[in-house]
């Protein structure tokens, strides 16, 4: 089974306006509502690819209930910790001539709720996959990823970590199955500006030397590069299309890669991940199955 953890899920309220004017009433030309958060996004796209998963994390209030119901309505299992106070965040994304985001803070997560999450993590068994994605809310310890992986260190898991800076570096000692920085994040980790495939592959190799089993580096319009567990470098170009959405493409790439690994073929996994990420970038919401496999055929 695949488990995804979303510490701070959200309702994304996306509004479109022809011309945003601050200080005035703005009429909308369109609006959409999505339930998300990085781990939940991974679960949604896995479902499109026919892969079952279970979503874990924290929800609160009426917005938390809506998020949980939204996940369940897609046929995805959910086992969230319900917080006693506050409400899950609403992120407002204004799409006009320029894109503006107003992201909520999210509820306070007490120690008792963290203990409840660890109880739910106890269900994870050898051979399962655990996806840890995104930042840590400021009401949780900064080493939350480490605490989870230390708690599960005696189990033979495939751990996927999509995070940046110290959050990523501090879990390499647990030998995660996959880490997914983008090229700018990879350079930031080592204080370098990476410009060529050779430079990117070289610093991806440093992450492998520090414990990562596979390193997937997304490079926006330049495609992606994978350094696999056997030391082989795979390169994939970018999908062709018009970018319409900046939310969830990286999570979709993670989902596609995980699904592709079912065939034990890293080159295929890289292509499926690239197609899934592209399909989300070219859509208003997260990628759909037909869109993903249409782009995969082009790759």
| Largest sheet data | 10 strands, mixed
Rg from Cα:
19 Å
Beta-strand portion reads 15-25%
Low-confidence spans: none
| Number of DSSP E strands | 14
- Following the backbone from N to C, one meets helices and strands in this order, namely EEEHEHEEEEHEHEHEHHEEEHHH
Query: Into which percent range does the helicity of residues fall?
Result: 25-40%
Output the structural class: alpha/beta
- Morphology call: globular
**Can you count the helices?**
10
What does this structure look like?
With 299 residues, this protein is of the alpha/beta class. It contains ten helices and 14 strands. Helix 9 crosses helix 10. The protein is globular and about 55 Å long. The two termini are 28 Å apart. The model has no long low-confidence stretch (mean pLDDT 93).
Summarize the structure.
The chain has 299 residues and is α/β, with parallel strands linked by helices. The protein has ten helices and 14 strands.
Summary keywords:
299 residues; alpha/beta; ten-stranded mixed β-sheet
Outline the fold blueprint.
Elements: E1 2-6, E2 10-16, E3 30-36, H1 38-48, E4 53-59, H2 61-73, E5 77-78, E6 81-82, E7 89-95, E8 99-102, H3 111-121, E9 129-133, H4 144-151, E10 158-162, H5 165-169, E11 178-179, H6 183-190, H7 197-209, E12 214-218, E13 224-227, E14 233-236, H8 249-260, H9 266-281, H10 289-298
Helix pairs in contact: 1-8, 8-9, 9-10
